[in-house]
Amino acid sequence: MLGAETEINIMKIHFLGGVGTVTGAKYLLETKKAKILVDCGMIQGSREDEEKNYEDFPFNPSEIDFLLITHAHIDHTGLIPKLYKDGFRGKIIATPPTLDLVRLMLYDSQNIIQRNAFKQGKQPFYFRKDVEESLKLVETLEYRKKKKLIDEVYLTFQDAGHILGSCIIEIYAEGKKIVFSGDLGNAPMPLLNEPAKITKADYIVTESTYGDRVHENTIARKEALENVIENTFNKKGVLMIPSLAIERTQELLYELNDLVENDRIPDMPIFIDSPMAIEATGIYKKHSKYFNLKATNLIKTGDDLFNFPGLTLTKTVVQSKSINKVAAPKIIIAGSGMSTGGRILFHEKMYLPEPNNTLLLINFQVKGTLGRIISEGVKNIRIFNEPVSVRANIKSIEGYSSHADQTALYKWLANFSKPVKNIFTVHGEKEASKALIQKIKDHLGLPASLPKPGDVVEL
Description:
Blueprint: E1 12-17, E2 26-30, E3 35-38, H1 47-50, E4 66-68, H2 74-77, H3 80-85, E5 91-94, H4 96-119, H5 128-135, E6 138-140, E7 146-150, E8 153-159, E9 167-173, E10 176-180, E11 203-207, H6 218-234, E12 238-242, H7 248-261, E13 270-272, H8 275-286, H9 293-300, E14 311-313, H10 317-322, E15 330-334, H11 344-351, E16 358-361, H12 370-375, E17 380-383, E18 386-389, E19 393-396, H13 406-414, E20 422-426, H14 430-444, E21 448-449, E22 456-458
Parallel strand pairs: 3-4, 4-5, 5-6, 10-11, 11-20, 12-15, 12-16, 13-14, 13-15, 16-19, 20-21
Antiparallel strand pairs: 1-2, 1-22, 2-3, 7-8, 8-9, 9-10, 17-18
Helix pairs in contact: 4-8, 13-14
């Protein structure tokens, strides 16, 4: 446990989560003047993994001065209310869109956490009041604005292009500059700008989710989506797309809007069966000034990027159940993106046993999740503790990932001029992180390393 009584003489980074895995991001930067936590993510995956969210933080939350949020996804924000519950009263800093999205996600997450805890006969690791109170600590910061945190410690957010409001964090302290990439976008994204180019840093903490893979390009991924839809239509089947409520669903709506309006896919009902995705889409509309130039220009022409003929938004349970009465072919987009909960499970339970149907995976599937199990070819699974046979077609399009692939990560890192003292690869499974390290060393000639969970590195 880190203690306040110890004077900090050397700046340090503690790698507390999101190391060797793609979930539970938490990085603590200790300076002489402040303790700064970057992200406070929930661990997602198997039930055993998720039990770790009940554990005490490996530091005293009351001693944290600042919490900086890279973006709203639960694996980066999900333990913020627990941090508050355990004593944190410092400042939380995020971009304006991130604040709106975090508010949406944390209340939804708390409902799920509480429901699951009560089913197991125990208390949740935080309550609704903790969400309410923690959100009162948030203040917003726009991109490219330099903010003084405390004497000799400054902060700047840059556009990460990953989801709406996502940021790269630049921290200036004790004559050093530390850059946290957060999650970097898979440019070119349908709605967002490419990640900001940064040229100078002493230390870089970079994500490596797809550090060992290269995505399809934007043309190929749209063609792949079009082909899956056409094949489903020809088979008179059901296309199920487990999708993250934030960014992925909005990207899909953007792409489907274009395919429908240009008659590239046959007429068929399309359902967005996710209350959170519907609310998140409203937040996207509110913050459209963060969109890229192409999307902005389309809006100026009067094009509603998130609405088109054949689209139905099903917010209530009754509306969701009514989808089953609609004859195939049809498309159902629902959360969660890794089939760990949400309405997609009801559709998978009903439609996975039929060979004319298709499950399309467009998100990274974390180890231990049902989505990962299905993607690995398991033919007999359990949903709601009932056996389900997987006879449907299982397809995957990695190009719709909102994470930069190996090539994009390399290009972003290549913008930095020497000397860079070290590049730490995080937020990736070990194989992906190691592959990116090798590419950095071989082609950029920069030092790079993979921290272990709990490692403390002096800067």
